[in-house]
């Protein structure tokens, strides 16, 4: 038995790839357009970790997906949480829970999927602008 | 960068472990009771695949989590989809989408988290009772 992926539905495929690929740094593994079903599947994974994927389901005629409380978040180890959060800010992403502790941050996809970022290994030394950055919204 | 886990919230920890461990076959990796925050975290994974986990968050004073459409499902490769589905039925689980095609099934956790089971390798030869088993509910 083996974990394959977590599937999430996305309202806007371009906006979602900007978030998951350009900002978060996942890479595209494969993509399938199913004309008959009017949907597109895109499989993503962290670089070098293709055994655990995220499947984006983009239904061409559906959007505006709501969030539920039963699903919490996806979590990733990252090499440098400050560098990644700064890169995401530069890409226009809100850091809902900034890494004030040098260890943990939360961001959200365009469809409200919460993503936890955890610094690999020891927490980084505390530093600005992170120490003073307040929470924004929920995650 | 590396995928760590998908977190889901559970209303009833015992019922959830019956589903995820006794029925689905995941194994418990670790558990943490946080008295101060009044919650328990349980980390599970497929046998032999501890790099990709499911984190169950059990808040002691909260239950009745709703589902949203932005989250789709968790997916696992399984060695024998018929044997696993029969085992789950024996454990009292409804197979929402039976493996009529010898390849794919869907079940749901007590909190409505959808789980996709995919036969590893080639689809199994079609056989009863699966061929005639109707869908039940949503997944």
Structural notes for this entry:
The structure is a homodimer of 139-residue chains. By secondary structure, chain A is of the alpha/beta class. Chain A has one domain: Roll (2,3-Dihydroxybiphenyl 1,2-Dioxygenase, domain 1). In chain A, the strands form 2 sheets. A 4-stranded mixed sheet of chain A has the order 1-4-3-2, with helices on one face. In chain A, strand 2 and strand 3 form a beta hairpin. Chain A is globular and about 50 Å long. Chains A and B meet through strand 1 and strand 5 of A and strand 1 and strand 5 of B.
Just name the CATH architecture of chain A. Roll
Average pLDDT of chain A: 98
Q: What's the assembly state of these chains?
A: homodimer
CATH topology of chain A: 2,3-Dihydroxybiphenyl 1,2-Dioxygenase, domain 1
Radius of gyration of chain A: 16 Å
Distance between the termini of chain A: 31 Å
Order of strands in the sheet with the most strands of chain A? Answer: 1-4-3-2
Q: Estimate what percentage of residues of chain A fall within beta strands.
A: 35-45%
Question: What letter string, H or E per element, gives the SSE order of chain A?
Answer: EHEEEEHEE
CATH top level label of chain A: Alpha Beta
Domain count of chain A? 1
Structural class of chain A: alpha/beta
Summarize the topology:
The structure is a homodimer of 139-residue chains.
Chain A: E1 2-9, H1 13-23, E2 27-34, E3 39-45, E4 53-59, E5 71-78, H2 81-90, E6 104-108, E7 114-119
Parallel strand pairs in A: 1-4, 5-7
Antiparallel strand pairs in A: 2-3, 3-4, 6-7
């Amino acid at each position: 038995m083996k974990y394959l992926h977590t599937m999430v539905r996305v309202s806007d495929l371009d906006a979602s790839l900007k978030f998951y690929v350009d900002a978060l740094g996942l890479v595209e593994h494969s993509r399938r357009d199913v004309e008959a079903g009017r949907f597109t599947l895109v499989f993503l994974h962290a670089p070098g970790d293709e055994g655990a994927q995220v499947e984006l389901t983009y239904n061409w005629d559906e959007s505006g997906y709501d969030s539920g409380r039963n699903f919490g978040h996806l979590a990733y180890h990252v090499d440098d949480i400050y560098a990644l959060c700064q890169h995401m800010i530069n890409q226009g992403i809100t850091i809902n829970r900034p890494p004030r502790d040098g260890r943990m941050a939360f961001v959200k996809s365009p469809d409200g999927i919460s993503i936890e970022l955890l610094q690999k290994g020891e927490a980084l030394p505390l530093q600005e602008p992170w120490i003073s950055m307040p929470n924004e919204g929920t995650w």
